[in-house]
Amino acid sequence: MPKIVPLNEEVTFEEVGVVGRPIISKTDLKGIITFVNSAFCKLAGYDKSELVGKPHNLVRHPDMPKAAFKKLWETIEKNEQWRGFVKNLRKDGKYYWVEATIQPMFDENGNKVGYISARKPVSEKDKEKYEKLYKELTQKEEK
Prior knowledge:
The protein is of the alpha+beta class. The protein has a single domain, classed as PAS domain (Beta-Lactamase), CATH 3.30.450.20. It has five helices and five strands, in the order αββαααβββα. Strands 2-1-5-4-3 form a five-stranded antiparallel β-sheet. It is globular, with a radius of gyration of 15 Å.
């Protein structure tokens, strides 16, 4: 897939018609997408066929600090639920913010088989807070 050039233009849940709808994705244990719902596709700007089988970090925005995802993986690999704020990159280069909750999924024998994530819109207050925090963290990582 060609590299996407980030644009400084936000897309909201309202603009793509997914207000009040959960944004759902599932991955395997390595973060490869196994399921996305139609609301996820609309928000991310991809067709389902372009997402399933690809790494979930396909939608990772370069403004996101590595430390945020390190903490996420540390949490879910311990079978705990993670909740946080994420700036994602759409296929068209625009971005969108989500409040994400990610937790492990288990089969009927109790074996961990993957992860499920549900996302919802972020308040303006939280968006401002995390934009500032992530910018500071990213600048530190670049030094």
